[in-house]
Amino acid sequence: MGVSRRDLLRGAGGLVLGFGMGGIAGLTNGMAAEPQTGAALLPWPYKKLDVDAVAERGYEGYYKGACCYGAFEGIVGELRKAVGGPYSTFPTEMMVFGEGGVAGISTLCGSLNGAAMTIFLTTGGAEKGGKEKAFALIRELFNWYEQEQLPDYTPRNPRFQIVRSVSRSPLCHVSVTNWCKASKVKSFSKERAERCAWITASVARHTAQLLNDNAAGIFKAAHAIPASEQTCRGCHDQGGVLENTRGMMDCGGCHFTPKTRHPKV
Amino acid sequence: MGVSRRDLLRGAGGLVLGFGMGGIAGLTNGMAAEPQTGAALLPWPYKKLDVDAVAERGYEGYYKGACCYGAFEGIVGELRKAVGGPYSTFPTEMMVFGEGGVAGISTLCGSLNGAAMTIFLTTGGAEKGGKEKAFALIRELFNWYEQEQLPDYTPRNPRFQIVRSVSRSPLCHVSVTNWCKASKVKSFSKERAERCAWITASVARHTAQLLNDNAAGIFKAAHAIPASEQTCRGCHDQGGVLENTRGMMDCGGCHFTPKTRHPKV
User: Fold this and answer.
1) Gyration radius of chain B over CA positions
2) Could you give the ipTM of this predicted complex?
3) What are the chain B neighbours of A259 within 8 Å (beta carbons)?
4) Which residue of A231, B76, B83, B195 has the lowest C-beta tally within 10 Å?
């Protein structure tokens, strides 16, 4: 199409029409006009952040609203100070939903969920091509989380000292279990909560570093998908002979430990 | 504390101070005041929704911004029409982040991620006790998704006809794999995309039903955690002899298929 979304935005005298052609197509198809979002279009403006300030805000945020809130507020709270504008309109309280892998269900680590949203908010967009940069940053963050010894940030006023572990998974319950094994500490202890506060701080800090690098034009992915996972994907992912799944998680984090082998191929 | 958050809000002449005592404690500790969020406090006002209208908006939303956007916009788009107000300020475009289990990484099903956020936005809150109702609704949604034959909603103008399957997991790649097995269709086909559009519509629709029931005071959880999972949790979750994990996912969806047995206990 010859008219960009931003041209339409300007033509509408500041009224944001929402992304895509849905609203406009609706009008040309004779459907009733309806209220469109008045939110600022993505990406929202970004300013280089102090990564340690982000980490400390993430750590404190964990004890106010848990992991997802802490990671999101770590970044967005600092952007509210540095940029203001749209960041002051966001209901960050909503991020409490992601606690313990969403409402304690222990699916996706809440700090990753919250951090991924800050990445999309500051680098993404729904137009064709608008999501690719954000997705590359999110994938790097998730691979880093799976592969590194974490937490890698010590808060200024810690409640306990925390052992590091490798999660091999972006999932809450796997990450927690691997840390419990490494630390010999129980999963509902105050020490485990503190570990997740450090993880929240570490994830928020690393996300801010990725966003700073991206803003400076020097972002480069440093964590590739493991070779073992590429082997799995060779048969099971897009273009493989089976093509019966999708994903970029470390398959071996859950499937086929030494005790449980892959069927013969 | 004797002064509620809403009292503080009113006392501040409309300025939202953010939740918890962080901002206030900061002030009394002599830290500099800083910009607080100006977003409306949770829960945001809810009006009974037409569940089929939500489903159709979710289906169309999938083809604009994928699963997480579709489910979120299915609900929030209808609330923008019915309620307006704060819903018109939310940057729904951000929800594109959750595509394919977040940036295609295939962790948490994007439609569940988006739907969980709409539940928290309309029924949750960060104050003590404010999250329990929202978490109960989210857990019911996730259990329903794991246990039911889905998708259970057929869009008005479908691109293909879609076979149903049981996911046994809230994770994107598990849900996709189980559908690929049931349908004998590949994971990167147009039919699989259409299946995920139907899933998005089904999840958005069921979420609207749960929210309608909650608003009418008749919500009751209909899907319990499976007995097999309760057995696992007896040793591994809070209070168990091992207490080395946490969660409310169906353990057997991934662990200990007939080929891979639990170690002797």
Assistant:
1) 21
2) 0.88
3) 260, 263
4) A231
